[in-house]
Amino acid sequence: VGPYFATVSPAMRAIDSETFSFSLTCSHNHPSQPFASFSWSRADGNDLPDGRYEVSGPRGSSRLTIQDAEVGDAGEYICSVSSSDNSIRSASGQVMFVGPTTTSPTAGTPTATSITTPTSTPTGTPITSPTTISPSTSPTGPGVEWIGNFSSAQLQARWRVDTGTRTVTVNLRTAKIDSSTGQYIGFGISNDRLMRNSDVITVTVDGDGMVQAQDRYATGYFVPGIDMDNQIVSSEGGVMDNVVDVTFTIPCMSNDNADISIEGDHYFLFSIGQLNNEGVPLYHGAMKWPTRQKIAINCTVLATTQSTTPTVTKTSGLPTTPSVIPMTTVGRMFPNLSRHEKLLTILTFDWLAFV
Fold it and tell me: Which residues pair with 24 in a beta bridge?
């Protein structure tokens, strides 16, 4: 009797940058073990993607579904079946990524914006001269208060809006990193908390401590391509004691039709990862943190409401503050008073104006 086998279908599954989700189904051929239990794992020992996978299925089978497919989801998935007689052998299915995994700048493509301290009012011209500078500090002056923040064990972020220049400034600060290897920080603007179709700013730090900011756009679950139209207005920051502290400014409304403008309600995406030998960002794995709710960014100066209450000339012994309680309101409060008594009531409470 036996042995019995589990089967994973499909045995090989191809995914690409347009794959939203994929599923593998596991079943077995043991006729007397209808209540056998199933479990899924990766052959490389990595955990299943937290928050993106679901296991379901009717009795006698199990379906593993992974949402928001990414290039890092490729690999071998093992289905193990536990039965009372331990006679069912496990099976596996292979998931392959068939799309491009890197995007390199081509001839004529703008290079990264080198981070430097601006010496004048930003004009939107890309900063191209590499300069080593000290970490950024909190801004000072009118209208520069930080209005929002995000915090995890590995990364802290905050942002502010300048309604005068209609720009948004973002500050990113990491925990200590391994400065001997290339690292990057990712900041994304998304309509649905997903990487695909998100606007991305990457801040890269190479092994020599050179820091660069890059304006990118993610069309799928692979390295976002560098934008032809650089929207980074200004940037500053650096590395000190293995901590990356950078600040960059982007316009509220992008003039690049391929971008997502930060003004409005969007999810923010944060990530940390390593660079390959060519300085290209590698898959960040679990080091990603989308905001739970959309972040509202309003770059419009609200008009000041003008009071229409007439100015009251100050008289001896009386306050100059106009009344906000009309005679008709006093009448509703005290319906049995005469007009003369109502007027006395208003004066008693230092209410001067009435209609």
Answer: 64
DSSP 165-213: TTEEEEEEEES---TTS-EEEEEEEESSS-STTEEEEEEEE-TT--EEE
Rounded CA separation 143/163 (Å): 8
pLDDT for the residue numbered 128: 32
Answer for the pair 272, 183: CB distance below 8 angstroms, yes or no: yes
Mean pLDDT value across residues 231-259: 87
Burial of 105 (0-12, 13-18, 19+ CB in 10 A): middle
Chain segment 106-150, per-residue pLDDT in tens: 333 333 444 433 333 323 323 332 333 333 444 443 445 888 888
C-alpha distance from residue 45 to each of 19, 40, 41, 76, 222 (Å): 24, 11, 7, 10, 22
Please state, in angstroms and rounded to a whole number, the distance separating the CA atoms of residues 52 and 60.
Answer: 23
Strands 264-274 and 288-290: antiparallel
What length is written for the chain?
A: 355
CA-to-CA separations, 113 to 76, 117, 118, 170, 250, in angstroms, rounded: 39, 12, 12, 15, 12
In whole angstroms, what is the distance from residue 50 CA to residue 64 CA?
13
Residue with tokens 């301290």: 117
Rounded CA-CA distance 140/136 in Å is 12
pTM over 0.85: no
Among the residue ranges 70-79, 101-110, 188-197, the one predicted with the least confidence is: 101-110
According to DSSP, the β-strands at 4-9 and 243-251 are unpaired
Mean residue pLDDT of the chain comes to: 73
Give the best-scoring range by mean pLDDT among 3-7, 52-56, 324-328: 52-56
State how far the Cα of 245 lies from the Cα of 77, in Å rounded to an integer.
Answer: 39
CB hemisphere CA count around 65 (13 angstroms)? 8
User: Quick one: pLDDT at residue 337?
Assistant: 56
Answer yes or no: is pLDDT of 154 > 90. no
Write down the residue that tokens 């593993």 correspond to: 64
